[in-house]
Amino acid sequence: MTMLPMESPKKLGLVIDLDICVGCHACAVNCKEWNTGGYGNALSDQAPYGEDPAGTWLNRIHSFEAIPFDDAGNAAPQDARIVHFPKSCLHCDDAPCVTVCPTGASYKRAEDGIVLVNEDACIGCGLCAWSCAYGAREMDAEAGVMKKCTLCVDRIYNDNLPEEDRVPACVKSCPASARHFGDLADPTSDVSVMVAERGGIDLMPEQGNRPVNKYLPPRPKSGTQACGAGREEELSLVKMADTPKADGFVGWLDSALSKLG
């Protein structure tokens, strides 16, 4: 069992705006390109041009059709919308993928809260993947070790890059500016202010993992509430995120992700 560090004074993470993500997959592609070219072993592919291609991806985007409720609480299919949901490691404060690791290969950095894998110590047992509630870990079939989002740690501290490029590859490549990077432990940072103003939410808070990454929910269309959320007083997604059993948008998202297995 691997211990987690004391609460980090700095928590680097992502804020993803579900209202403007267009599901173009540019983040996933650039993530794969950067990590394959510049970090550890390449993210392998199996039969990439065959009938059943597979491979290791640290970012994946799921798309859902969401039907909101109107002010009377009735389904409003005329306002159905597609919600694109990017998913990667959320660098949880209480990361079970770290504490379950039998070799210490999975660890959380005390200085910035980033969760990483020491591939030299990974034995490929897969326990971390089983413990991750978000399905964010990827066993590389060719390398035989676990891979995961590193927040591009080899990029964000890279003095050889221009300062404007010292952000994760997924953030740099997003054409809609739906992805943002910063210190979520600093209440004055741009990402923290964004989360506070937009009612940013934790993914599946009932799991108790305290993810650092946050999601900004889709804004409601005129006359309806966002993706199943209820009436005006129920639009506080932060309040919903704090409840043991989430409902509204959080509940819908929880249910949708659960069906992915």
Structure write-up:
The protein has 261 residues and is of the alpha+beta class. Helix content is 22%, strand content 16%. It contains eight helices and eleven strands. The protein has helices spanning 26-38, 96-99, 127-131, 153-156, 169-173, 190-198, 237-242, 248-258, and strands at 12-17, 45-46, 54-55, 60-66, 81-87, 106-108, 115-117, 138-139, 146-147, 179-183, 214-216. The strands form five sheets. It has a three-stranded mixed beta sheet with strand order 10-1-11. A two-stranded antiparallel sheet has the order 2-3. The chain is globular. The two termini are 25 Å apart. Mean pLDDT is 86; it is low at 226-241.
Structure at a glance:
About 20% of the residues lie in helices and about 15% in strands.
Topology:
Blueprint: E1 12-17, H1 26-38, E2 45-46, E3 54-55, E4 60-66, E5 81-87, H2 96-99, E6 106-108, E7 115-117, H3 127-131, E8 138-139, E9 146-147, H4 153-156, H5 169-173, E10 179-183, H6 190-198, E11 214-216, H7 237-242, H8 248-258
Parallel strand pairs: 1-11
Antiparallel strand pairs: 1-10, 2-3, 4-5, 6-7, 8-9
